[in-house]
Specification:
Order of helices and strands: HH
Number of helices: 2
Strand content: under 5%
Structural class: mainly alpha
């Protein structure tokens, strides 16, 4: 008989797991489902936060568009007045003797 060798015992030993019971599998599945639902709640909350930010950005864009339209209308009126003034000055210049 050989003396006891702890190193040999460690390499020869194998731990075999018992197959999980149906109850254990159910508990594991329920824990995983709870975790997935928690992650989904976090994702939905983040999505709602992003939607709220998008709503604010869209409102700001709408306001900027209205402001831009008002400025363009004002510039258009100024350009029309400048064109009318230039036409009047051209008419005056044309009517002067050479």
């Amino acid at each position: 008989m050989q003396p006891y060798n702890p190193e040999a015992a460690r390499t020869d030993a194998a731990i075999l797991a018992f197959p999980p019971s149906p109850e254990r599998r159910l508990r594991v599945a329920l824990r995983q489902l709870d975790q997935a639902l928690a992650e989904q709640r976090e994702a939905v909350a983040a999505f709602r936060t992003q939607l709220s930010a998008l709503k604010g950005a869209m409102a700001g864009l709408g306001e900027s568009t209205i402001d831009l339209r008002e400025r363009l209308d004002s510039v258009s009126e100024e350009a029309s007045r400048a064109q009318a003034t230039a036409a009047a000055l051209q008419a005056t210049a044309d009517s002067l003797p050479d």
